[in-house]
Amino acid sequence: MISANALGNIEEGYQFSILALKMLDRYDQNLLRSKVNMIHGGFVNHFKLDITEDFKYLLDGAYSGYQNGDLEFAGYNILHYIYNYFFSGKPLSEVERECTYHYNTIKKYRQINSTQAYELIHQLVVSLGKPSASEMILDGEKFNKSRILPLWQQANNHSNLGTYYIGTGILKYYSGDYPAAIIAFAAAKEHLPGVLGMMFVPFYHF
Predict the structure, then answer these.
(1) How many Å separate Cα 157 from the centre of its chain?
(2) Helix, strand or coil for residue 89?
(3) Taking Cα atoms as reference points, which of 167, 173, 18 lies closest to residue 82?
(4) Which one-letter DSSP state was computed for residue 44?
(5) For each successive 10 residues of the chain (206 residues), what is the average pLDDT?
(6) In angstroms, rounded to a whole number, what is the distance separating the alpha carbons of residues 73 and 76?
(7) How far apart are CA 110 and CA 134, in angstroms?
(8) CA-CA distances (angstroms) from residue 100 to 42, 66, 153?
């Protein structure tokens, strides 16, 4: 992950990630599969292959985490699966169905951070489908901005704050409010280290 993202050596990072996956199979290290799959599918694989190739690793990682009691990474695998499903270009109606389908599963894991982040991306999907620009905000029935955003700011949660501001920028851009989009993307800048390797970064630079 560090080699492919922070150091920019994509090929080396990808090969190390593939090696880690092979080591899991060779030494039957199922207790680590959820973590390794999340890193590979969430941060590395899409640098080399189509983003849809991430799905199998993330879904398998979620299942493995649940089976082996690693509920933290089971939740992160589902979260990154939904992130990448969204960025894969699927129709919004299909992405929303997928969000709804997996929501009860991630809630079952009782992992606050991944569940709140999941609610954020779910709200982004819902808001993008709204008919009017005034409704295209990152707040609503899925994500309670007034309750959750201050908690992230207090904890200086760069990952979730990065996704929040970039998500807000995306909404403002597509609603035609370009000045507000610029402000949102500018606010995301300091949080970019928290979304390193994720598809939010190309949208920030776009």
Answers:
(1) 14
(2) coil
(3) 167
(4) I
(5) 53 78 78 91 88 95 93 96 96 96 92 96 95 88 95 96 96 94 96 92 84
(6) 5
(7) 33
(8) 20, 19, 27
Helices (H), 109-199: 112-128, 145-155, 158-175, 178-188
pTM of the model: 0.90
Closest CA to 51 of 79, 85, 19: 85
- Please give the Cα distance from 168 to 5 (Å, whole number): 24
| Nearest CA-CA partner of 65 in 19, 23, 106 | 106
If you search the block for the tokens 């919004």, which residue do you land on?
92
Helix orientation angle between 112-128 and 158-175, rounded to the nearest 10 degrees: 0
Q: How far apart are CA 206 and CA 201, in angstroms?
A: 9
Tokens 């939904």 appear where? 82
CA distances from 127 to 10, 13, 95, 186, 191 (A): 34, 35, 12, 21, 23
Residue appearing with tokens 């709200």: 123
**Structure tokens, 31:** 């207790």
